[in-house]
Amino acid sequence: MNAVFDQMKKHRSIRKYQDRDVSDELLNSILEAGVMASSSGNMQSYSIIVTKDKTLREKMLGAHFNQSMVTEAPVLITFCADFHRMRLWLEASSAPMNFDNLMSFMIASIDATLVSQNIALAAESVGLGICYMGTTLASCDQIGDLLGCPSHVVPVVGFSLGYPDEAPEERKRLPLSSLVHHDTYKDYGPEEIKNVYSEREILGWKRYMAIPELRQMVEESGVENLAQVYTKLKYTRESHLEYSKTVSDYLLRSGFLHTV
Ligand SMILES: Cc1cc2nc3c(=O)[nH]c(=O)nc-3n(C[C@H](O)[C@H](O)[C@H](O)COP(=O)(O)O)c2cc1C
Fold it and tell me: Taking the model in full, what pTM does it have?
């Protein structure tokens, strides 16, 4: 339909990068476009931490579960929910020191996520590639410490950035009709659920079985289908409970859970 649509439809997560720097000039243009993202009350309650320093990225590798793109991409960007900056201004203006609660954290996380995706799209429009890393939130405590985040600043999303050195296949999405509800939420019956996931079951399973390490994991664990891969291997209840504790402890430490 237009160039923006075309580019959005060509999105692929990029995990392998050329050994080529992204110039500060280009990066600045991307960031300038990206910060035009909507933000709650135009407060821009986020910070964008651009990490090019390889030594620092090497230190961050473990927190990112050793995902090689952390050090192999030339740039790592961490988007933090941030009410610290605003609160410094409030203090200097004799204004009430608000924004120390869960709602504020949620607002700041939404702002951070929206700006991250705007920056991702701007980057992709000039031929760069990105890959989000959920490890940013799962290890927000370690990453926050390594990046020197003060109170009311929480790393929530992050991605690697650089010139792609791979051209991955498209990862199919669920049918649009299963994602969009008209007027009100239409719940799914058992047959519909089967249909929603039928293509995903086949393609996802095929993908796992084509990668030797993943195939071995599937075979050794005895999981039988893709839903079990998601819940018994990739995103176990135990792992998510552990990350939940990391996040809630960090929110408490960072001052976002003030309740009185
Ligand atoms: C919040 C978030 C966290 C993600 N975390 C990871 C990650 O830790 N490692 C990774 O390789 N991909 C990660 N991804 C990328 C997804 O796996 C990817 O977007 C999805 O499989 C669809 O593929 P595509 O982006 O190539 O279309 C993440 C994506 C999002 C949005």
Answer: 0.97
